[in-house]
Hints:
Belongs to the peptidase M1 family. The protein is α+β, with helices and mostly antiparallel strands and about 575 residues long. Among the domains are: about 30-185, Sandwich (Immunoglobulin-like); about 440-570, Zincin-like fold. About 35% of the residues lie in helices and about 25% in strands. It is built from 17 helices and 17 strands. The chain has helices at about 210-220, 310-325, 330-345, 350-365, 370-385, 390-400, 410, 420-435, 440-450, 455, 470-480, 485-500, 505-515, 520-530, 540-550, 550-565, 565-570, and strands at about 30-45, 55-65, 70-75, 80-90, 100-105, 110-120, 120-130, 140-150, 150-160, 180-185, 225-230, 240-245, 265-270, 275-280, 285-290, 295-300, 305-310. Strand 5 and strand 6 (about 110-120) form a beta hairpin. Helix 3 (about 330-345) packs parallel to helix 5, helix 8 (about 420-435) runs parallel beside helix 11 (about 470-480) and helix 15 crosses helix 16 (about 550-565). It is globular and about 80 Å long. The two termini are about 35 Å apart.
Amino acid sequence: MSSHYEILHESCNMSNKFTFKMDGFILPKNILPINYNLTIKAFYSSNLQPDENFFDSSFKIKFELTSPTNMIIFHADPSLKIIGQISLLNLATGESSKIINSRYLPNQLYQIVLDKNIPSQEYLMTISFKNDYGSESNLVGFHKINYFENGITKIMLSTKFQPADARRPFPCFDEPSLKATFDLTLEHPTDSIALGNWPEIPSEFHNIATKSFIEKWLYQKNFPEIKVKLNYTQAQPSVNFEQKVFLFDQQKEGKQNNDEWIVYLKCKVGGDTREFKYFLDKKQGIFELDRNFSWIKCNSDFRGYYLVNYEERNLDILNQILAYNYSAFSTEDRTEIVFETYFQALKGDKSYNKIKNITKLVTTNENTYITWNALLWNLKKLKTLTEFRPSFKELSDYFIPLLTNKYSFDELWNDSDIHSVKQIKSEILGVLCEMESEKCILKAKELFDLIPSEYFRNPEPNSKLNELSQNQRAIVYKYTIKNSDKNENWYKLLNLYFNSVSPSERENALNGLTSSTKIWQLETLYNEAFKQESKIRAEDFFYIMTLIGKNVQGRDFFWRKFRSEFFKIGNK
C-alpha cells in the first residue's frame, strides 16, 4: 500500500470463512502471544522539533495460532509509522507467508492479509516502525517530558500503558487476557540513564544457576522479610540472618513453610563504616565479623526487593545517627528505613513510636522527592487502616503539624519552585487533606470557587482562567467535591470532563467526581457510562469503576452493582 494510515472498511474477498467485525474493539480469539522481543532506539532533545524527538524500533512477536486463518489482526495506534515489509515465519516449517495487504482498521487495530490460510502452529512476526513522543500534554504510551531542576532543562522519557496504551509505542495484542513474556533492549544516549523495574544481576550471581534463582522469586508469594541481628555474645562476632515471607497478617505466617528465596544482601556495619555482601539461600544464615560493631544497615541504597526487620536497639541507633547527621545515609538508605519502620509497625512488630520518630526526622530534614514520597505513601496507608478507628483522630492530630515542619502551610500552596519541590509540596497537601486537615480542605474549596464557570464549560479557549498549577488541580478538585454540599460543583467537574481534550485534566476531573460522598452522584456517573451515546470515553470506563470502588461511600454501591449487573459490566 502507498500509505499505512489509510483506514479501509471493506472486507477482503478471500475463500475462507474467517469473520471479524471491522468496527469492533475486541481482537480475534485465535492468536495467543508468547514472547515480544523489542529493540528501541530513543532520540530526543530539549526542543520540540519532531525530527529530533523520535524512536526507531524493531519488533519480533512469537505467537501461537489456534485455528487456520488468512488474517492477522493486532493493536497498533495509527501514529505508528510501519517501515519496510512485515514478515511472518512459520517456526515449525521455516516457511515465510506471503502478505498481500496490510492496513489500519478502526479502533487502533491493524490487519495483515495473507494469500492463503495458514495452519495452526507457532509463528514469528517481524515489524519495524518509528514514532515520536507526541505533544507535551500527551502523558500516555511512550512520552517525553521537559522539566526544570536547579535552573537546568532536563528530559525524561517514560511509559504509561494502563489501561489501553501499550499499543501506542509498539504493535501488540493489547488485551488483559493475552499475557506474554518480554525481551527488551533500549538504546539511549551515553549521557542518559535508563531505569527499569528489575535490577541488574550483580557479578556475584554468576556462580548461581539462573533457573534456580528466578524460580525462587517467581513462584513465591509476596516478598521476603529478612530478620537481621548483630550477635555479640559469642567469641566470634557475627550477623544472624533469617528469612520468611512478609505478611501483614501474622496469623498466616505459619502456613508459609516453603517460602525461600536466594537473596543478595549488601550491608553496612558501624562504628567505622564497613560494607559486606552475603548470599542468603536458606532459611537462616550467619556472616562472621572480625570484631564487634555497634549497628548494621542492610539493603544498601534500597536495591533489593525485600524488607529488613531490625532489632529495636539497632533501629534506635539508626534514628540517632540521622538525628545527629541526617545525610550520613544516602537518600535511598533513608527511604529504605522509612519503609522498614512503617511496615514493621503496621505489621505489629514495632511500636508506633518508631513511626513518629522517623516521620519527625524526615519532615524536618528531607529535601529529596524519593524519601518524601515513601513517607507520604506510608502515611496514606496508615490513614486507610485507621480511618474508622478511634485512634485516627489522635494520629491525624499528631501528624498534621509534622507535615508543615519543612514548609509552612502558605509555602505548600506556592507552586513556583523547581519541579521536584513542587511534587513534594503537592504530595504533602494531598496527605494533609486526606487526613482531614480543616485548613487544607477550606483552602481547596476556596481555590475551586475562584475558577470561573466559563472554564468548566469550555476549558481549552479559557485555559488561562484556571490559574491552578497541574500539581494542585487534582487536590483542589478531589477535596472540594468530597467535602462540598454544593451539587453545582460536581456538575462543573462533569462538564470539565466532557469538554476537556487534555488527558491529565480529564483524569483530574474523574478523580474529583468519584470522590463524592453522595451516592446519587456516583450513580449518575455510573449510569452515564452505559448510555448508548455516552460522553464517557470507553477507555475511561474501568478506571471510573475502580475509582468508585476505592471511595469508602462508593464501595458498597459498586459491589451491589457488580453482583447484580456483572455481565453488563463485563460486556463493556
